Amino acid sequence: MKTNKEMFDELDEFIDSLNCNPSELIAILHRAQSIFGYLPFSLQAHIANKLKISPAKVYGVVSFYSFFTMVPKGKNVINVCLGTACFVRGSDKILEKLEELLHIKNGETTPDGKFTLTSLRCVGACGLAPVMQINGKTYGNLTVDDVEGILAKY
Amino acid sequence: MCKKINSKEELLNLYNNVKDILEFRKVESESTEKYHISVCGGTGCSSSNSLEILEKLKYWAKECGVENKVEISITGCFGFCERGPIVKIFPDHTFYTKVKPEDAERIIKEHILNHKVIEDLIYKKENGETTAKQDNINFYKKQHRIALRNCGLIDPEVIVETIAAKGYQALAKCLYEMTPEQIIQEVMDSGLRGRGGAGFPTGQKWKFARASVSEKKYIICNADEGDPGAFMDRSILEGDPHSVLEAMAIAGYAIGANEGEIYIRAEYPLAVHRLQIAIQQATELGLLGDHILGTDFSFNINIKYGAGAFVCGEETALIHSIEGCRGEPTIKPPFPAVKGLFEKPTNVNNVETWANIPVIILDGGKKFAEIGTEKSKGTKVFALAGKINNVGLVEVPMGTTLREIIYDIGGGIKNGKKFKAVQTGGPSGGCLTEKDLDTPIDYDNLVAKGSMMGSGGMIVLDEDDCMVNIAKFYLEFTVEESCGKCTPCRIGNKRMLEILNKITDGRGTKEDLDKLNELAHFIKDCSLCALGQSAPNPVLSTMAGFYDEYLAHVEEKRCPAGSCKNLLNYKIIIPNCLGCGMCARNCPVDAIHKTDKFGKNPRLNAYQIDPAKCIKCGTCMSKCPAKPKAIER
Asked: Which of A45, B42, B315, B369 is the most buried (most CB within 10 A)?
């Protein structure tokens, strides 16, 4: 586990390597999110300060792109593909089943912090539709009955 | 392994030294002296453990002492994702489908050691016929591969294989033999139009960018493939990244730019990885970077990440995103060719467009223009998905009919269901129906039919799909992805979605249909960018083709396809009921009970469903063994 200072040092080093160039903001936010897991206001303010731009501009970018999150995610992140190919093969039913089993809605995290349930548009594995990813591992050709067994592995 | 290449001759020498690698794979023979095994390493196949298959194959080759006789490598997407993971054996061109890691032992022991084809791994048609060779599979017969020419042939992580496939020869030809004007003329002659959606002539775009006077210009590759259900750009980047890099450098030379940016979705980690390797290898060989091939021309390429915003596929929005801002579109003009990235002239093309360029330069624009229809030249890659037997990536000449794609290549509709419609162009496109099946597909015909080419997603729908629900699906997508800058798109689409929700919930009226129509035209006319202007298309085209379905929803409160849950009413038809109780035993909410009436069998009581308890899951209907079914909805 890295200390807070180590995490900030890692980020600062990265920002310095890009010459504190504000046009690299998105790349910096990607890195910050991979280090800290999420992008709280305090972190956004830190980045704004470093790049000498207003925190409002950083917040504007963070809130615009769906990849960035301002709340911490759970230990296991479940991504259900809601691309068209998966949708017509029933991924909406998979999502419903997950919501039912985890007692959370799409976009939420379980109170114990174990699972975050999100959806995305097309991972590009349309031949395996419907698919979901848990921590980046893809499960394909899903049926509603498979879901419980897969969750039990985590 | 190779030193820097300093001239066209050195590149050609290297090509002559290494071209046999691919000759061996291209020429089919029954020779058993040497083998090459290609394992598909695309996202689809690697999601089903193809990399483990690769490791196991290597392990067994070593274990059986044949590692000198057989080369094993990954390759890009074969396109036949439905049957993945794919393993292809050269030189006999045996095409193994749905391979599992535990099959690796048999492939080495039976095929490589004993030269025997493994019958249960080869492709099997729906009618049970089998075929061992890729070329005999209907899925590949009608395809014409230009943009995907190297996918499934070369190892994308080894640049020598790209060189053996004539990689970078087009760049060399441009730098040594052609003026920028000649290059642009060649691209204009080819008739190539942008493959990202709008279909703007690529040569024109380059001409405008060249005409802008500036010290600094930029080339951008749009790899922000946001259309849900389309994955051709990703497959090209994963399977043949150098073709894109080479084309960007050619365009850089033609318009006078020395820097290129590839804007790619963060959801495509494998494509990013392959691009990074490709850029590094090409730079080491002197095919990118400073003084390319010993000339005065320099060109550097950077990778920029998207962060999940569909609107960033629009070129002005994309440019703002690269600048580190919110990806909001701005009004054109000024066009990027005049004022683009960092206010400098910029040329943006999409991945598939780029992949065509080296072929156009090497074979000539006129030859390319021989393929296709009068106004749409060349080929188009489609991502065939949905309710179709052969899901995958197909590349066909422009002018191929939908019928050929869906039935000959795609193998028809899954589970023998009836074809209903095909959706093209993603959230900006529309649906084509049975009567359009024989229309030759090109940019203009699709627009005339109320749809569009888009990036090439092609989603096949069957009789179980409710068209109102499909329209709602796409509108949900655009509402979520609307950047919110202009009012018609931000508010108008949300109102349309509310009306659609009302209709699928069974609260819609006939006036709602008129309102939908009016609102749709208003949004199309008044939105700022292509996202808003095209957002109502799925609604308009489904209303044009399936108005009776909309009417059934609002007037009879009925969903003909049986997919809108709130409009379903499960009922047991007592005279058909066998009294077996299968439905009652499987009902998850205990909503089915015995009645005092007899059904088909005069000694067994029929059942009935309590509508107050029913959750409309449809389990009873799927479990009912009676023929015809005793349950209707």
From this structure: B42
How many other C-beta atoms are found inside a 10 Å radius of the C-beta of residue B338?
17
Phi and psi angles of residue B28, each rounded to the nearest 5 degrees, phi first: -75, 135
Task: Report the distance separating Cα B31 and Cα B259, nearest Å.
Answer: 47
Which of the listed residues A64, A87, A103 is the one where a domain comes to its end? A64
Q: Answer yes or no: do A123 and B383 touch at CB < 8 A.
A: no
Asked which of A38, A64, A90 is the last residue of a domain, the reply is A64
- What's the token pair of residue B361? 């330069």
Query: Is the separation of the CB atoms in B361 and B184 below 8 Å?
Result: no
Model confidence over B98-134: pLDDT tens digits? 999 999 999 999 999 999 999 999 998 877 889 999 9
Interface of B with A in 73-102 (CB under 8 A): 81-84
Beta bridge partners of B39: B74, B87
What 3-state DSSP class applies to B261?
strand
With beta carbons less than 8 A apart as the criterion, state whether B151 and B73 touch. no
Which of A17, A33, A53, A64 has the most B C-beta neighbours within 10 Å, making it the best mutation to test the interface with B? A64
For chain B, the C-alpha Rg in angstroms (whole number) is: 27
Strand-pairing partners, residue B475, are none
Within B463-585, strands assigned E span 571-572
DSSP at B146: S
Same structural domain, A25 and A53: yes
Helices within B240-334 (DSSP H only): 241-255, 269-284, 315-322
- Out of 3.10.20.600, 3.20.20.370, 2.40.50.1020, 3.40.630.30, which CATH number does the structure's domain B379-462 have? 3.10.20.600
Distance from CA of A86 to the nearest CA of B (A): 7
b/e map B496-512, b = 16+ CB within 10 Å: bbebbeebbebebeeeb
The fold for domain B467-555 equals: de novo design (two linked rop proteins) (1.20.1440)
pTM above 0.80?
yes
**Which residues in B lie closer than 8 A to residue A31 (C-beta atoms)?**
none
- What is the architecture of the domain spanning B29-132? 3-Layer(aba) Sandwich (3.40)
CB contacts of A66 in chain B (<8 Å) are 307-309
Per DSSP, the three-state class of B465 is coil
- pLDDT above 70 coverage of chain B, percent: 100
- B153: which 2 tokens? 């042939």
| Dihedral sign, Cα of residue B327, residue B331, residue B336, residue B340 | negative
The per-residue pLDDT for range B607-618, each reduced to its tens digit, is: 999 988 888 888
Number of domains in chain A: 2
The verdict on a CB contact (< 8 Å) between A26 and B387 is no
Is some CB atom of chain A closer than 8 A to the CB atom of B342?
yes
Q: Please report the pLDDT score of residue B2 as a whole number.
A: 61
* Domain encompassing residue A129: 76-152
